[in-house]
Amino acid sequence: MFNVEFISGNLGNGFIAVVNIMDWVKRRKISSVDQSLTALAISRIIVLWSVYIMISMFSMYPELKVTIITVKLTNLIWIISNHFSIWMATILSILYFLKVANFSNSIFLYLRWRFTKVVPVALLVSLFLLFVNILVVEIQIDMWMDQFKANVSYSCKLKKFAHITRLLVLTNAMFPLVPFTVSMTMFFLLIFSLWKHVKKIKHITKSSRDASTTAHITALKAIVAFLLLYTIFTFSLFVQLWSHEFEENIIFKNIFRVGIIAFPSLHSFVLIMGNSKLRQTSLLVLTALRCKIQGCAPLSL
C-alpha cells in the first residue's frame, strides 16, 4: 500500500506540474491558481521522495547508527518540504475563497481587489513561520545532544532517539496548525457564503443550482478533502509517537507509513478532478492510453 501510494502520488503530482508548465509555455501566462497548483505539486513530490527514502532506509536498516548531522539533515528536509506542501494547499484554499465567495464586507472586497498580492503576503508569513520552526527544532536538538553526550558516545542506534523523535514530531505538528486554522476559516466562510447565495436566489428561481453555487460546492470539496487528508496525516504522526511504546506491534508502523504518505498522494487526484483543465486533460490521456493498448485510433479534439 505504501509503494502504491508513492507511485500514484508521483504520477498525480507530476501530471499537475507538467500540464500547467506546458500550458504556461504555450500561452506565455499562468493564473495564480495554476501557479499555486504547480508549486504545490512540486513540493508534494519532494515530500513523497523524502518520506519514502527515510522510511525505506530505516526499515531496511533498523540498526543503522545515526549522528546529530543525520538527524538535523533529515529533519530539515522534512520541515521544509512538508511546510511548503501544507502552506501551498492553504494558499490554494484562500484563492478559491476569494474567487468564489460573495461578501459585501470592505475587508473581503479589499482582499479580492488586491488578489495578486495575497499570495506573496501569505508566502512571507509562511517563510517567517518556517524560520521560527527550524530555529526551535535546532535548539531542541542541540540541547538534547548536549545532555546525551555527557552519558554516551557521539552516535547511537536509531531506537535510542525515541525521546528526541517525540519532541520533534510534537514541535513540527504545532506550526502547521496556523495554515490548518486558515483553511478551516476559509471552509466556514465558504459555507456561509453559499448559504447566503442559495437563500438569495431562491427568491428568484425555483432551482438552487447555478454557476455560483456549483463553484462554491467545487471549492468546498477541495478544501474538505485537504482538511480530511491532513487530519489523517496528523493522526499518523501521533501514531508514530505511540509506536515507540509498542515496538513489536507492526500495525502501528504500517498505519504510520500508509497514513503519512496518503496526504501528498491522494490530494493530488482530488485537485485534478476539481480542476476542469486538469480533468479534461487527464481524460484525454487515459483515452489515448486505452486506445494505444487496444490498438484503436484515439479521438482528437
From TrEMBL:
Transmembrane annotation, as ranges: 6-25, 37-55, 75-98, 118-141, 177-198, 219-243, 255-274
PROSITE patterns: G_PROTEIN_RECEP_F1_2
Membrane topology reported for the UniProt record: Multi-pass membrane protein
Signal peptide: none
InterPro entries the UniProt entry points to: GPCR_Rhodpsn_7TM, TAS2R
Principal location class: membrane
Cell location: Membrane
Domain of life: Eukaryota
Keywords: G-protein coupled receptor, Membrane, Receptor, Sensory transduction, Taste, Transducer, Transmembrane, Transmembrane helix
Domain G-protein coupled receptors family 1 profile residues, every copy: 12-239
Pfam families with a match to the protein in the record: TAS2R
Family to which this protein belongs: Belongs to the G-protein coupled receptor T2R family.
Name of the protein this chain belongs to: Taste receptor type 2
Gene that specifies this protein: LOC101998944
